[in-house]
Design a protein that fits this description.
With 465 residues, this protein is of the alpha+beta class. Among the domains are: 171 residues, no CATH class; 154 residues, Histidine kinase-like ATPase, C-terminal domain (Heat Shock Protein 90). The protein contains ten helices and twelve strands. A hairpin with a 2-residue loop joins strand 11 and strand 12. The protein is rod-shaped, with a radius of gyration of 49 Å. It starts with 5 loop residues before the first helix and ends with a strand.
Length: 465
């Protein structure tokens, strides 16, 4: 229905508001018209009485009646020099119904009397008191019939009502077409643009272009433009990630088979008589086992998410030493990186050893790469201690470095996949995976500090199962 549209309701409200304004104008207008009518009768009655006074009372009979008839009154009383005189009179057809004194009448009383007159159904006789014009005496009093007054008030009110209705409709139509031109049409263009964009949100040519000259609509169009641009970018990224996930799953599947073969060959190396081979074989087997587990976890991630941790009693100090030793081998010859551990030898955690290794390895590797990029000596330190968080007991592991700190862009999306990459060529997966693994243990991974003096991460792990 038309009334349910924005322009239709605006048209209806415009008519109502303009009519309300006209009513507020109508009330004093009808009161003013009644007052002027009575003042005119007073003036005509004063002229008739002055004619009688000018003749020294010689006017009487039919001539006096004609003067009263022309004045439209039944009698006139003119008070002059503190003497009350009956100047002209004629028989009253009915008793006086009401008396109105125009000398002290206010706006509200005039409006009230005017509407009372409009509400009267039968003519009546009223007395009106006013001031004579041109200082013709102290006061003048007349008695008249309200039949003509009642009829003229209704005629005047009808003309005002028709004029008000015409002005209301004309004003409402002007406002209606203005709203359609400046508000409804631009809104329909925005709605149409949204519908077109919804058909193919990945098509950048369907993103709305802000064109409205109205500031509020311009702001809405710009906000919609940014939202559609971001959504298009996210949808494209989602498609690329889906394709990448399929590729990674296939690669991980084949790589797992290769690493399984290499692991079996490494097992045979343990039977070698060379002492150096015997020392290196367990570490090689451990690295290959972690690589195989990583491939299997990648395949599982492609299906859903990281598998739940397999909790066991893990001694933290040897695990940290394994992380440091694997990173020492990766340090370039030109870099001077020192690895420090401050962990009680008796500290044990309830955790998944492989997942905890991945978390610490990701953090230490990022720190080592940041220090190597500065070409300055640096320190990477891991410390751990008992801690409490939100009233729950657990363990706090701190991983810090003396590197240059993280840029602001990286801190904004630090734990978001493919968003928080810092190193050139990195994809930003390490911290996202680490945060997910820690959450799987019921803990939290947080960035506690990152400035020109270095970066520090905090891992809180609960002590309960």
């Amino acid at each position: 229905m038309f009334v349910n549209t924005l322009s239709g309701r605006f048209l209806l409200l415009a008519v109502i508001f303009v009519m309300l304004a006209e009513v507020l104008i109508f009330a004093p207008s009808i009161a003013r018209y009644r007052e002027e009518y009575l003042l005119a009768r007073l003036e005509r009655a004063q002229i008739a009485s002055l004619a009688l006074l000018a003749s020294d009372g010689s006017i009487a009979g039919e001539l006096a009646g004609e003067l009263l008839e022309n004045a439209g009154v039944y009698n006139v009383v003119l008070r002059r020099d503190e003497v009350r005189e009956l100047v002209l009179s004629s028989p009253l057809p009915a008793p006086v119904d009401a008396t109105y004194d125009l000398r002290m009448a206010g706006v509200f009383s005039l409006v009230r009397d005017a509407f009372q007159e409009l509400a009267q159904k039968e003519p009546r006789i009223i007395r009106v008191i006013g001031d004579p014009v041109q200082r013709g005496g102290l006061l003048i009093e007349i008695t008249l019939d309200t039949q003509d007054l009642h009829r003229e008030l209704w005629d005047y009110g009808g003309r005002i009502l028709l004029l008000s209705l015409a002005i209301s409709i004309f004003t409402a139509l002007l406002l209606f077409f203005s709203v359609r031109m400046f508000v409804v049409t631009p809104m329909r263009r925005v709605i149409q643009s949204m519908a077109v964009y919804a058909e193919s949100p990945q098509d950048q040519t369907r993103i709305i272009t802000p064109r409205s000259s109205i500031r509020e609509l311009r702001d809405a169009e710009e906000a919609l433009h940014h939202m559609q641009s971001d959504l298009t970018g996210l949808l494209r990224q989602k498609d690329r990630l889906a394709q990448l996930g399929g590729s990674v799953a296939r690669i991980s599947h084949d790589l797992r088979n290769m690493l399984t073969t290499a692991s079996m060959l490494a097992d045979r190396m343990e039977a070698s008589d060379d002492p150096r081979v015997k020392r290196a074989a367990p570490k090689l087997v451990g690295s290959l086992s972690r690589a195989i587990n990583l491939c299997e976890a990648t395949l599982a991630f492609g299906k859903a998410e990281e598998p739940p941790p397999r909790l066991s009693r893990v001694q933290l100090a040897p695990l940290v030493e394994d992380v440091f030793e694997s990173e020492r081998l990766a340090v370039s010859d030109a870099a001077q990186v020192t690895f420090l551990a401050d962990i009680p030898a008796t500290l044990h955690l309830r955790a998944d050893e492989e997942q905890l290794f991945r978390v610490l390895h990701n953090l230490v590797r990022n720190a080592r790469q940041a220090l190597e990029a500065t070409r300055q000596p640096g320190v990477i330190e891991i410390s751990a201690q008992d801690s409490k968080s939100d009233g729950q007991s657990g363990f706090c592991i701190r991983v810090g470095d003396t590197g240059p700190g993280l840029p602001a862009r990286a801190r904004e999306h630090l734990f978001e996949a493919f968003q928080g990459g810092v190193r050139k060529g990195g994809v930003g997966l390490g911290l996202a995976i680490s945060a997910e693994l820690v959450r799987g243990h019921g803990g939290r991974l947080e960035l506690t500090r990152s400035d020109e003096e270095g970066t520090e991460f905090r891992i809180w792990m609960p002590s309960a199962d």
